[in-house]
UniProtKB/TrEMBL annotation:
Any Pfam family: tRNA_edit
Source species, domain of life: Bacteria
Domain (YbaK/aminoacyl-tRNA synthetase-associated): residue spans on this chain: 28-151
Record-given protein name: YbaK/EbsC family protein
Amino acid sequence: MPDHEHDTYRRLIELLDTTGTPYRLIDHEPEGATEAVSALRGHPASHAAKCIVLRVKVDRRTTRHVLAVVPGDRRVDLDAVRTLFAARYVGFSDAATAERLARAVPGTVLPFSFDPDLELVADPAVVASPELYFNAARLDRSLVMSGADYAALAGPRVEPVAGPSVLNPRTSSWT
């Protein structure tokens, strides 16, 4: 496990333990795709936190980075994020920037921000979830906690940033 993964995992567990926040760890085969890891953990993808690092260009000179957290069966609504930040452009961050700001590799990004340059926005459905599952900065270990505890601890800006479901209703398969 690379150092930043170990440090981010350790920081998360220390935060949960020092605040007395209830959580459960789940060990599983290494997997980072939301749908696949949800199946390994045995829950619907809608109970997972999908965490996406976005680049938000407010104007020609100002770029912000946002960690959008949506239910695992939904997509990030880039138009909603653009409106929320009154931005000219919103797109996915490049992998190197996302990894540096999230302090985790793709597929293990936490729904927490430990970097002041990474703004945290969570969809209301995430914080309303009785059980919220996410990879714990590792591909082989996940964490489950309540959405309410997550909101209290992570302090995200709660805004509707989830788009429609990614489940194709005609085929019942993931798109």
